[in-house]
Amino acid sequence: MGTVSNIGFPSVFRVPLDSQQALSKQMKNKSSCCFMVPPNHNYSIRPSPIRCNKLSESGIEENPTTTSTSKRPSKNKDRMEEYNIAMKRMMRNPYEYHHDLGMNYTLITDNLIVGSQPQKPEDIDHLKKEEGVAYILNLQQDKDVEYWGVDLQSIIRRCRELEISHTRRPAKDFDPDSLRNGLPKAVSSLDWAFSEGKGRVYVHCTAGLGRAPAAAIAYLFWFCDMNVSPKPSPYL
Question: 58-96, pLDDT tens digit by residue?
């Protein structure tokens, strides 16, 4: 996962006063962190190996539903180049999103997963079977989904069939102000999901490098006392 400091942390947590008060009220009603961690636990993000869909020998995702073998890879490549150029320019982020490699994600805590967009219903089956996901928080706007040609409705239907709660809290990509304003609702959704205790929570945006990590960090910051202040350099 990419570092979200590139999109304005810690200033991204400066939410409107009424939202801060609402969050503070929720936190006062909490007897302990939802992850049930020991007191004085020093949170650290523990990356797990990136999970991807099955690849062919050429390194391209095998997709039996693809109708065009000549034009679609070219279009996807153009989209990826445009998206990564925009991401590097707007977020000053050196990481890249490779849509053709399929969904990727990282286990942040025992109950929280951050990743990229599910691309097909089979991705939902994987999250349910392999990771025990019971709740998905989608931070994409409609135009994000349309840009990549993802059939979101089929994904939502599969979530319903597998009894996975699917919630959307759209935020504009590459826009710190939109993200900052949307964080209280996104974090509130995460808090509700964890309180249900039915399984892991998967939070995603498009690439899993900006909005989704931001929502995860905001939750850990507001509800689990995670310290987001940079550590002083031992060389200074």
Answer: 333 333 333 333 445 567 788 888 887 876 766 556 678
Instruction: Give the separation between CA 49 and CA 207, rounded to whole angstroms.
Output: 16
Using CA atoms, how far apart are residues 193 and 199, in angstroms rounded to an integer? Answer: 9
- Where do the domains of the chain lie, and which CATH numbers do they carry? 4-53+73-223 (3.90.190.10)
128 or 49, greater pLDDT: 128
Token couple for 42: 């020093």
The torsion angles phi and psi of 83, rounded to 5 degrees, stand at -65, -45
Residue 136 in contact with residue 164, Cβ under 8 Å? Answer: yes
Contacts by residues 31-34 (CB-CB < 8 Å, ≥ 24 positions apart)? 33/223, 33/224, 33/225, 34/111, 34/191, 34/194, 34/195, 34/223, 34/224
Sheet of 112-115, strands arranged across: 105-107, 112-115, 200-204, 133-138, 165-168
**pLDDT beyond 80 at 219:** yes
Give the whole-angstrom CA distance, residue 53 versus residue 127.
Answer: 11
Check whether the bond before 170 is cis (ω within 30° of 0). no
Alpha helix ranges (H) inside 12-134: 17-28, 72-91, 121-131
Smallest CA-to-CA distance from 114 within 122, 130, 102, 103 is with 103
Residue 224: partners with Cβ closer than 8 Å, 6 or more residues away: 33, 34, 35, 37, 43
Active-site annotation, residues = 205
